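wait is this the right file?? whatever heres the structure
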């Protein structure tokens, strides 16, 4: 077992190949160590070469679990790999008060299959009528971990969101003082703003002014999709972070639109051009500590995606860890995957890291699971459309 950074890289066999050890003795200690670290990536199991990667168990800092039959079906897909997740409050009706969050949390825990270990981190949906005292008390008691800001009309189930940002000023000031993180769906909704520009315009017109006006407010820019957002978060003084989804690291708008429209790649914010995807991948794999995984895994039934006015949302929970290992491997940054999935998020949310681990194994191409059956209808699982060679090792 070799340690590298906080990650643990394991090989399968009991011994390193003899020629590598001999080589190691011939050169300086430091080079020998580096050589062995490299060998650690490649273990031998019989004649078949396998590569394994053990990480602290990851968390998902942006997840939609829905409710009822859908919740029951999708929850195990996340709980299998992830220890905790920030649970989005955009139910119909939304999770607005601490009483709503308490009962939603109970429904999630009741839906968790026995033997699965998973902690839902609850959020409140910010409205123009949100009571600051309720938010602060809910955070102080540990019931909620963040408050979610949806500009009204920006995305799925956002009709109760904020229209007039001045009306939430008092809540944001109270949150800044108490250190309650604000998760933001960062898109303007004005009809004249092109959908591909909505995130960049939001940063300039809404987010930056709010942050300047509310010093100390801790903000997570959710599911960023542009080089503009990458550049903005890179300036973080510690009060700003960003999440990136699995799918935005793997697809661009050509994947969505060229050769026929692919409804299962449609989400909001919509995927942008390739140069933006490259900026996201560069940031995610860079080791930058204010960026972490938020899958935005958002289940919609197949029929509500494959229709004349399809819903926005990509369901990626079942395949996220293999997909991310593929992306990080291609970037030569497997040693930074753990920071992105398991360390940076807890650091920003001021929570302990998970003590248990998961192991990923490299092998044959991953078979994308068949649509997940739910009581509401099947949900299609994200398929990046290219081979993913990683698998989560199941006990
Ligand atoms: N991302 C999406 O396209 N959809 C999300 C809402 C959201 O996170 O914006 C959903 O709830 O379906
Ligand atoms: Zn969103
Ligand atoms: Zn979302």
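ok assuming it is, sequence goes like this
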């Amino acid at each position: 077992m070799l340690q590298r950074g906080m990650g643990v890289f394991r090989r399968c066999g009991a011994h390193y190949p003899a020629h590598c050890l001999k080589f190691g003795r011939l050169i300086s200690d430091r080079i020998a160590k580096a050589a062995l670290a490299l060998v650690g990536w490649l273990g031998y199991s019989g004649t078949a070469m396998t590569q394994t990667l053990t990480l602290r168990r990851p968390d998902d800092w942006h997840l939609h679990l829905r409710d009822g039959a859908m919740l029951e079906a999708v929850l195990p897909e996340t709980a299998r790999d992830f220890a905790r997740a920030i649970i989005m409050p955009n139910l119909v009706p939304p999770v607005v008060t601490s009483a709503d969050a308490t009962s939603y949390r109970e429904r999630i825990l009741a839906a968790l299959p026995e033997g699965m270990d998973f902690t839902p981190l609850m959020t409140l949906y910010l409205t123009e009528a949100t009571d600051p005292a309720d938010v602060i008390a809910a955070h102080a008691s540990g019931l909620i971990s963040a408050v979610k800001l949806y500009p009204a009309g920006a995305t799925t189930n956002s009709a109760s969101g904020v229209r007039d940002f001045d009306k939430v000023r008092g809540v944001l000031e109270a949150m800044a003082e108490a250190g309650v993180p604000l998760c933001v769906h960062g898109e303007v909704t004005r009809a004249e703003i092109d959908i591909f520009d909505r995130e960049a315009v939001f940063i300039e017109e809404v987010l930056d002014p709010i942050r300047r006006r509310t010093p100390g407010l801790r903000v997570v820019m959710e599911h960023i999709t542009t080089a503009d957002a990458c550049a903005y978060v890179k300036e973080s003084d510690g009060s700003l972070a960003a999440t990136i989804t699995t799918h935005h690291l793997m697809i661009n708008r050509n994947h969505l639109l060229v050769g026929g429209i692919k409804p299962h790649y449609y989400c909001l914010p919509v995927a942008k051009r390739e140069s933006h995807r490259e900026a996201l991948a560069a940031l995610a794999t860079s080791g930058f500590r204010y960026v972490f995984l938020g899958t935005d895994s958002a289940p919609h039934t197949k029929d509500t995606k494959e229709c004349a006015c399809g819903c926005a949302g990509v369901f990626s929970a079942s395949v996220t860890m293999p997909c991310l290992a593929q992306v990080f491997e291609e970037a030569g940054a497997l040693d930074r995957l753990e920071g992105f999935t398991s360390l940076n998020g807890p650091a920003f949310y001021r929570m302990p890291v998970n003590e248990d681990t998961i192991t990923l194994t490299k092998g044959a191409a991953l078979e994308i699971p068949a649509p997940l059956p739910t009581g509401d209808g099947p949900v299609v699982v994200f398929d990046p459309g290219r081979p993913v060679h990683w698998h989560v090792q199941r006990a």
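Residues 268 and 312 are 6 Å apart (CA to CA). so i think its the right one actually
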